[in-house]
Amino acid sequence: KDPVKYFYSDYVGGTLQDYVSTCLSLKTSETLVNPFRDFNILTYCGYIDTMDSSAVSLDKCFGGCIKLNYIPDYFVQVPITSMKKTFYDCVSLTKLPMLDTSSCTDFSLCCAWCGMYEIPNWDFSNAENMNEFARNAENLKHIYIDIPNATTADHMFAVCDNLTDASINIGRANSLRSLFYSSENLNHVSLTLYNNDDKPYIDLDSAFERCFNLENLYLWGFDENGYVSDLTSAWYDCHKLTAIPDINVSPDNLNPTNICGAFNYTSLVKFPKLNGYVKFNISYYPEKITCSTVQEIPKYNVCSVAYSGGLFFETPNLTTLGGFAGIDKSLDFKECPLLTRESVLNVFNNLAQSNATINLHKNTYTKLSEDDIAIAVNRGWAVRKVTN
To answer: What is the pLDDT of residues 311-370, one digit of tens each?
Structure first.
């Protein structure tokens, strides 16, 4: 039985036998790992008979075939177990084939740098590794994908320059680091976290960083079905973003969620409620909160922030603060002339015992009485008026 039913190409300088020889190994093998990697001028793939195989891996199968422009649906007619780098760098392939992916667990880098215009209706129900799945897929504009069992999806749609809207349903993905990093035209995102008895901890480090046009953000279930373990730079440079939903962060005060840079250079008017414990950094240098539009920051629990250099607020329109429960590092509000007396008292009343310093703009300082200032002083803090 011929292992190759149909196989055509415009390969110049080679023959069909070159491909037949490559495919002969499929007679006993259960893998299609990297068979065509070196055929960089392959333009067409036909049907492949996998003989007696009950399932195959397509790891790296067409990786680097930069001129490949057509693959028919179900060119392999048995279930696929892995698709790591299957269509990696297939920049001329604008439509991906339908395949039986119900048993596939690894989709990492599957379509990275691929030319497809949409994600096919593959079955992702058993997908576990979605890392860099469609990174740098520049033709993608719209995404709807359901990955209920994925555990990691780092850089899944990073640097997708033409992507405008995305909807992703996740069940227990622990890591979504740089999920949409630098997808500059992304405007609308909906992330839905399924109800999960395990209450997963989810890493959103840099998940939306440099999404300059992000305006509409929906995080369904993130305030009840799990916890976010890291928000470092999550929305850094999202210039058009005006609101972020409330989020459950770490419930463990010994392992607080890092929010260093999370809201910097956004257009937020109010920072989201973060239900749990947070830290701002773990360095000796002050952490800058840089947001010219923010007017309100709710109360945050910042217990156990070891080695923090303190917080410096570049927030000239900030008027309302809920305070920072448990903080014992320096606070600098010298660029916040609009802070209310009530907000400063919220800060004072939530301070831990410390010998740190609070700097206040002169306008704010003059709103305080001696008794007000004594609240902080009695906890070891120095309160200073900054006049320049």
So the answer is: 999 999 999 999 999 998 899 999 999 999 999 999 999 999 999 999 999 999 999 999
Interior CA angle at 299 toward 241 and 170, to 5°? 50
Of the CA atoms within 13 Å of residue 170, those in its CB half-sphere come to 31
Contact (Cβ atoms closer than 8 angstroms) between residue 221 and residue 194: yes
The CA-atom distances, in angstroms, between 34 and each of 57, 64, 108, 168 are 10, 10, 15, 30
How deeply is 34 buried, as exposed, middle or buried, from its count of CB atoms within 10 A (0-12, 13-18, 19+)? middle
In this structure, what is the dihedral angle of CA atoms 272, 356, 334, 243, given to the nearest 10 degrees?
-10
The region that residue 34 occupies, defined by phi over 0 for left and psi between -120 and 50 for alpha, beta otherwise, is: left
What is the distance between the alpha carbons of residues 54 and 46, in angstroms, rounded to a whole number? 20
Give the span between the Cα atoms of 217 and 262, in whole angstroms.
14
Angstrom distance (rounded) from CA 99 to CA 95: 13
